[in-house]
Design goal:
This protein has 601 residues and is an alpha+beta fold. Among the domains are: 70-200, 2-Layer Sandwich (Beta-Lactamase), CATH 3.30.450.20; 433-596, Heat Shock Protein 90 (2-Layer Sandwich), CATH 3.30.565.10. The chain has helices at 3-69, 71-82, 87-91, 93-107, 146-150, 202-209, 244-248, 281-332, 348-360, 364-387, 391-407, 411-429, 436-454, 479-489, 523-535, 544-557, 584-596; strands at 113-120, 126-130, 135-138, 157-165, 173-183, 193-200, 218-223, 228-231, 253-256, 259-266, 273-280, 433-435, 458-464, 472-474, 497-506, 509-516, 562-568, 572-580. The protein is flat and about 135 Å long. It is a multi-pass membrane protein.
Length: 601
Amino acid sequence: MRFHYRLMLYNTLIFLIVAYSLALVAAHYAMKFNKVTQLQQSHDVLNALNNYYTSKNDHFLFLLFPLYEIQNNYSVMSRLMEASSELDYENDPFVKQEMVSLLESIAVRDPDIVSVQLRKNLTGAQYVYNSQSRTLSLVADDRPFFAELGRKKLGRSLYGTRPIDSGKSNSSFVQVYGIAGTLGTANIRQNAGQILITYNTQALQRIYEASNDKTLGRFIIVAEDGEWVYDSDNRYGHEGRLDWEDWKQGENTIMIDGEKYFAQVVKSVNRNYIAANLVPKKLVDQKGDRLLFIIVGAVTAMAVLCAILYFLAGSLASRRVRELVRAMKFVGSNNLSYRIPLKGKADEFEDLAERFNMMCDELQETIHREYFSQLRKKNAELKALQAGLNPHFLYNTLEAIRIKAFDDGNERVAQMIVLLAGLYRSLVRDGTFIQISRELSICDMYIQIFSLRYASLLEYEVDVDPKMLIYGIPKNLLQPIIENYFVHGIREKDENNRFVIRGRIEEGDLLFEIEDNGKGMDPARLEEVQSSLEAMSPVGRSNYGIYSAHERIQLVYGNAYGIRLESEVNVRTCVSVRIPMLSSGQLNASFTVSASGDGTP
């Protein structure tokens, strides 16, 4: 086998090994990323569902205020609950209207309320107020929820979703869940009866449907006693058996009727219910297998195409090489008049043929001199162009990258490039001293770059006295402090990262406080860093940004000003920056005087 064929074979094998190795690695991480992305989107919807249901629980007592905050309402309710029979209610329209008005005042406080149900412990009578028909009816024992209410003791109870009469003329049914509490009256203080408020599940369903094309699996809200409050699959009554203990322990997989599910669980503090997202493991595996098939298939197709193109290109190159070999044989046989036919192609083989022909014309020496002369000329032109480069080149390059990222659908990357270009432009164009308003604008661009990276994991706030904005500050003084937080302080696995930039005028000085809830420092490390600032001697690289900012402050303003730190491990870190109230014009003038040796600012 000729050498170039062996070379083609070896290169093809190397390419295939590398390509498939990269494909498998890419598929592995792509599947993990796809799983994490879809589960995170599902987790966001899960939080929204949990928060909505939690708001209903928190709002429950507010709904009952009309019963107790108005004396007449309390009296009306007490008369009904303490009556030994229901004759007054049945025979006296005034009594009935009073109760209807009272319960209506509760129902209008929440548009999701479908009905308000009352049960008297004294007689066992059961009443239902329907928010659609605005009527109060005495109902039989088979009405949904009342059997459970009869067994209820003191305290609040949660009831799962059941179908009840909607109260409309077409006799339709609506799915509702309930929250119940105990009623007390003037003479029966603790347990005169129960009140249960039922809510339409449509609001929860709308939250789910708004994002169901981006989520996986089934969303449920389940009370600790097994009541299913919400099920995105609407399988009420066929929920399947769940192991509550596994969920309370934070298990990320769970078995339901023999099938394995990935479970994302949200449980609010001091609540007797959980919200969960159940994704069948086989569904995630199917998506992963499909993604693996697509990646491997694409790599295989590219490998086959590349192999074909490589073979064709090799064959063309081989033919050109044979032409050169044949020409050398002619010249070697003293046929100096032979010339390689030139085909006008701009490639290496044409260059070799041309040089070969020139050598045969005994002009190799001249060609070499001309060739190297041209190289020197091009090199000089290149150096001249490189010397003439300015920041405008970087701006245009960043803009080209931004447009490419935007065209590829990477809007967040494009936005980060825009912010980086703006930040670089500001750092290059602005003078040594700028107004505080401009410094905060630069910091905001820097923060926004990291906000795009950390997305929902980061919150920040800027609270600076507007009176400070006209004063001057050394350019890029605050940014290294903010950078120190993003590099060393932020907790990347937490969702409640937050920092605040505060600014105020204090005792004739400008005081900035940059505070975060990040990793913090222990007392020994804090003392070490603070001592290094006072001694003007940096300790390592981890706090170099703070040290450099402190050094610049003392160089410009003197030793009376600088940076102080406060920190607690895993609680907070506060960096205080104190500088005098000087305009940027005053600072520039002072800096000029200092540089010429006429004085000290």
